[in-house]
Queue: 4 jobs
Job 1
Amino acid sequence: MDSIMHSMFHLPLPVMEKILRPIIVYLCLIVFLRLFGKRELAQLNPFDLVVLLSLSNTVQNAIIGDDNSVSGGIIGAFSLLAINWLLTWFLYRSPRLNQTLEGSQTMLIANGVVSEEALKKETLTYEELVSVLNKNGFNDPADVDQCVLEPNGTFFVKGKTPTTETVHSRELMQAIEQLTAQVTAMRAELAGRQ
């Protein structure tokens, strides 16, 4: 029992190294993801997904080193969570630095016109853009007022014309207003007769 406890909780590496390894890897990953663009975060195709999944496996040994102990895992997890919280808190307090580190949004479509320059900048193909539009309920870039790739890898898509649901909702609201007016008129007429 003593040897089990020893192998589970004995730290073969110094505690400070266990704290510094995940912090260094975390900061490097943040810089690399910023350098390689929003595309990786957007996961537009299977290749992007494979890169992100492989990335965690690639840096695993750099984070834990030669340590498979429970204590080492807990210290590494705590270090990752702590550096993430500290960085998020610091960036919340420094909006200008947050904007610099996060980057800016990229307008891919403006008033139905696709920006080829923006697609090249973000290494997006026209087909990938159309796929994003399809996921948002649009078939043609001409139907889109704005399509923006946000710094966090999400797409904001705003249509030019109202959707079928919006038109239907407006029609229903108009019908309800007409019925309400008719009922009010009928009540007034009945009240006048009495």
Job 2
Amino acid sequence: MNINTVSIFLQTIVGGIGIGSLYALVALGYSMQYRSMGLVNFAQGSIYMIGTYFGIIWYQGMVMGLQVPYPIAFLIGIVLNMGLGLILERIFRPLANLDLMLMLLGTIGLGYVLDNMAIITWGAEGFAVKSPLPNTPIIIGGVALLPQMLLLIGVSAILMVGLTVFLSKAKIGKAMRAAASDRETASAMGIPVNTTNAVSFAIGCGLAAAAGILAAPIVYVNPAMGGPVGLKGFAAFILGGAGSIPGAIVGGLVFGVLEAVSAGFVSSAYTKGIAFVVMVVVLMFRPGGIVGEVTVDKV
């Protein structure tokens, strides 16, 4: 293997980690919502799309012509999408106790509503987003890395670590974990389960917005952008272990790297197929996912 091949391989791996970070953040949204409510939210892709618009419209100057710096637009998008999450949690709350089929139909239907609201509000045509960082690649050891991709990886890592610390150290985080483990016992101990569910749902929506805003300068922003990412985020959620926070991270990164390697060294035509085939093979031997599924007791 010559030096050029090694550089291409490393560049492919970094790109896979970047796109995998995007999938991991979306998968974390699935996991947070599943852990708290036992809800498989197939509207997560649409929530990711809406969150992207919530932040990028400020950065692009689409709100009263007011253009704000990218970091501020990033925070605005997250906060607005978390607010949307609080509203959606109240809508989804009755679905959590219904049959799985009704639950899926409800979340898919709401996803279509969000998609059409985006078209009505911002139009069906998409737009490219200028990167807040220079487009000149950074060369490290012969590997060319886009600054925006490095930003995506770095900020995603901070969010993942921050979420893990929050759930393990913060008082509300511990309450959320307790409510996710056993709702009846947590409620009997005075933990406001509905409140922890709402916070979990809002965090999941905030993570989806963060993923979209970070990826916006790399992808094309449009109302249809949520479908593919939502599907792959769900695949990462299942691959890592449904409801598992570490599993969502691992599943997203594995899925992203598999996709990048198959596109770079096999054929872009087989990218989606190869990644999903590997996922099916893994689940044949580990039905609970790579890390392990979290059992959710629906009430």
Job 3
Amino acid sequence: MMLFSLKGAYRFWQRNAFIFRRIFPESLAVNFLEPVIYLLAMGFGLGAYLSTIGGLPYLVFVATGLVSTAAMFGATFECTYNAYVQMYYEKAYDAVITTPLNVEDVVVGEILWGATRSVLYGTVFLIVVAAFGVVRSPLALLIPALFMVSGLMFSVIAMTFTAVNPSIDYFTFYFALFITPMFMFSGVFFPLDALPAWVSTAAWLTPLSHVVSLARALALGTVEGRHMWDLVWMLVVTAALFPLPVVLMRRRLVK
């Protein structure tokens, strides 16, 4: 049974936030740099040869997609490499569960912190792309709330892999076989309807495609009824997978 207290989870979240304050500039630069490079290379480089996609300037299309990837990477790196180092090398999880906090508090606190970093990185990148004039609607103010939802989803998925990962080297497989294909085939760089039907269907099943779809619609003010299903999809997946990292991490830490 998954038993955790919000107060306990908050305490672990607070611990991570305190540590993050000291490394904020370096951490932000590392996680923020990759989407910026893609924005410059694809938006301005390839965009010089492409006029429009779906009636949008290519820079606008790519920028509104890359905002979602910045949020995804923020949660993913926190709940893979950072979480594994704390768990395996620093033994921080072992130390914390000797206090009144239990394993469930630690895992939920880590997931909440991953979602927080998702909001942080995604929002900063959103401000950057807004400076290029690609944000066209006040509905964009809702995007940070979307990043909290998507951050929870990506954190849950990443923590599930971390809980069963035998070695830090295996994260290469997680990024190469899961994160990178999502990054390339989730509507960030080209529309999903331009793909073969089976590829488009497979891409629709990936978490990032729904975040990109809804974030782009909010940024451009083109929200329709169908976008509600993107939000529903994320909430259902997050709720369905949420118990997994808690159960798996308990099995790993409590012998």
Job 4
Amino acid sequence: MAHDHDPHRYDRAFAIGVALNLGFVVIEFVYGMLGDSLALVADAGHNLSDVASLLLAWGAASVAGRHPSRSFTYGLRKASVLASLLSALLLLLALGAIGWEAIRRFGEPVAPSATTVLVVAGIGVVINVATAWLFMADREHDLNIEGAFLHMAADAAVSLGVVVSGALILWTGASWIDPAVSLALVAVILIGTWRLLRESVRLSLDAAPRDIDLDAIERWLRERPGITDLHDLHVWALSTTRNALTVHVVADGPGPPPDPLELSASLTERFGLDHNTIQVEGPRADCPARCDAT
């Protein structure tokens, strides 16, 4: 998450993704009900949660570019992290509902229309792959965009699984395949979403981003000329694309003290930390007591 991107560059991708998936949700739900296919209804519910997730991610990407104010001195960049967390939670709720209905259907089996399942789910594969492709380029640099990509990629896999379900039902006539595939899809999506949920929670609690090596940063700082010690090193995410650092460095050697501006520029170039606050101190004996707080 070392790169900052213009949030408006995603407007077109989000608009296309929302329009395609919202239209498909309606088609999939209607034909799922008409064809008595829980797999289709389950996929429609999952797709609806992804539409909400896309809208959250879109809104977060837009407000993240707003300038800081007296009330929000960092701006609203953190909204992108919260959107990622809400997206994961919405998906968990959808998965719970799908799993519950699938278990119920084992006791009350319904024979779905296999042909309807095959056709509608096949359309879903195409739509979800196309939408995921819109977010592929920057997914490694932005957790918010990665969340959108993962949802769409998971949807493509889910729709492909539903296609397989329809083919098996058409071949065997076994109605239990529909809820069984639904449960399998729930498990696969849950596993695939775990990393997004975990990282969103971490960043919401101001943990160091997963791609930041604090030990490497500390070693690099200690090797800089003029720095004899350091403390109160903190790194956290301002957003899903920007990271911040604060540190107190002690310079009580014979040479000149380090230049905070040069240190900040080097930290940005080497570690992708683009909002740095570096406090240069004299000997620890001259440091106020509050400097000992971690």
